[in-house]
Design brief:
- This protein is α/β, with parallel strands linked by helices.
- The protein has six helices and four strands.
- Strand 3, helix 4 and strand 4 form a beta-alpha-beta unit.
- Helix 5 runs parallel beside helix 6.
- The chain starts with a strand and ends with a helix.
Length: 162
């Protein structure tokens, strides 16, 4: 039996955007492909919040949209991830630069900006031109709602490509 298709979402601290992307993508894939198995996870480029739950505002916006991300725990991107996941997707250009800098030689993962890969596909590691999903950490509820909408749109587009 083959391994499930796998996607790792990356943001700075793994407390706002990437946990939301993990939860939304998992929900979209369960809706669209109920018989297919996927491995969906998230991590941060730094380890500031390792072991912590996602930001309560991300948990709240997800819950308002019928998605429970409260059991997720933050972790840091590691070199092992580059051979564990098919896609490693950053939320912004800084995330993507860090992902590409950490990628070991011979990595099997396709890396890219989440919105660019969702829009253009994942045939190569050049999917870096797309809209950044802004970090809502220092913003308010409206910022988290905007990020949710952006993540949902990108997740739907990415699911169209699977």
């Amino acid at each position: 039996m083959s391994q499930p298709f796998s996607i790792l979402f990356i943001c700075l601290g793994n407390i706002c955007r990437s946990p939301l992307a993990e939860g939304v993508m998992r929900s979209v894939l369960q809706e669209r492909f109920p018989q297919r198995e996927f491995l969906i996870d998230s991590a941060g480029t730094n380890g500031y919040h390792t072991g912590e739950a996602p930001d309560e505002r991300s948990v709240a916006v997800a819950a308002r949209n019928g998605i429970d991300i409260s059991a997720q725990r933050c972790r840091q991107l590691g070199t092992v991830d580059f051979n564990r996941f098919d896609l490693i997707l950053g939320m912004d250009q800084n995330n993507l630069m860090t992902i590409n800098r950490l990628a070991p030689a011979g990595s099997s993962a396709v890396t890219g900006l989440f919105t660019a890969v969702a829009r253009d596909g994942f045939a190569g590691n050049s999917a870096d031109r797309g809209e950044e999903i802004p970090d809502p950490y220092y913003g308010g509820n409206a910022d988290f709602e905007r990020v949710y909408r952006m993540v949902r749109e990108a997740a739907e587009a990415l699911a169209d490509r699977l």
